[in-house]
Amino acid sequence: MELLGIPLPALLSQLLLGLVNGSFYAMLSLGLAVIFGLLNVINFAHGALFMLGAMLAWMGGNYLGLNYWVMLFLAPVAVGIIGIVIERTMLRWIYKLDHLYGLLLTFGITLVLEGVFRSIYGVSGQPFDAPDVLSGATNLGFMYMPNYRAWVVVASLVVCFATWFVIEKTKIGAYLRAGTENPKLVEAFGVNVPLMITLTYGFGVALAAFAGVLAAPVIQISPLMGQSMIITVFAVVVIGGMGSIMGSILTGLMLGVVEGFTKVFYPQGSATVVFVIMVIVLLLRPAGLFGKQK
């Protein structure tokens, strides 16, 4: 069976592979949306912290002999702590300033992190093996689906929707949203708003590190690996709506699939299709697909 001259198994294969890329987009854009939506900061350092998570996972395995599962937990925690330090020492001073200051500051952090790891490891990629339990592939009839890529999709969806649930449906999430809109009122209820904001930033960058560890066995680890992701992820956030949690998740998954299908029908356009969609969405709905119109 064919669709527009393309064998159906090939299309289904690209659908599944697009979901893998979409899972990375969703995880990274979710972290960006959490930070912008609750802290009002455009975190350009997100790609570098994605790289840092992957690098720490590789270093833990290469130097300390720690396995993938341990580093899947430790790397996000370590990056989250680094994020807390960044927020307490730098970002907290610019919250009331124009967005440009946050963008420039986090861009500078990106250059520092990438420069440090480039000076130590160069720009060549480092291999990172998937855990043995997730090696091999499963025969789906129309393709062999690598078990690790299936794990990436499942893990990303669980983390993304769990984060959405906590922020949108729980008391903690209500405090977070209220704390960014009216901090004095929330503090009157005994909530430590500055601490809550600090932990929110730490959690947002920990999501980037978690995505980095998930990506490590799929793409080679290098100091520049975040650069190839962050521009596309920013486009995802803009399309979904700046600060929209669910918009970032759904848009990331959707654009991963669209990008995968574009590689089948028009391979030359796969690198730009996301940006074409972004331009169209901004022309028709400037706040994004799921953003609130002002």
Counting structural domains, the number is 1
Strands ordered across the widest β-sheet: 1-2
* Arithmetic mean of pLDDT: 85
Number of strands: 4
Cα distance, first to last residue? 47 Å
CATH architectural group: Orthogonal Bundle
Can you give keywords for this protein?
4 strands; ABC transporter involved in vitamin B12 uptake, BtuC; two-stranded antiparallel sheet; mainly alpha; single chain; 294 residues; two-stranded antiparallel ribbon
Describe this structure in words.
The chain starts with a strand and ends in a 10-residue tail after the last helix. By secondary structure, it is mostly helical. The longest helix has 32 residues. The strands form 2 sheets. The protein has a two-stranded antiparallel ribbon with strand order 1-2. It has a two-stranded antiparallel ribbon with strand order 3-4. It is globular and about 60 Å long. The mean pLDDT is 85. It is 70% helix and 3% strand. It has 11 helices and 4 strands. The protein has a single domain, classed as Orthogonal Bundle (ABC transporter involved in vitamin B12 uptake, BtuC), CATH 1.10.3470.
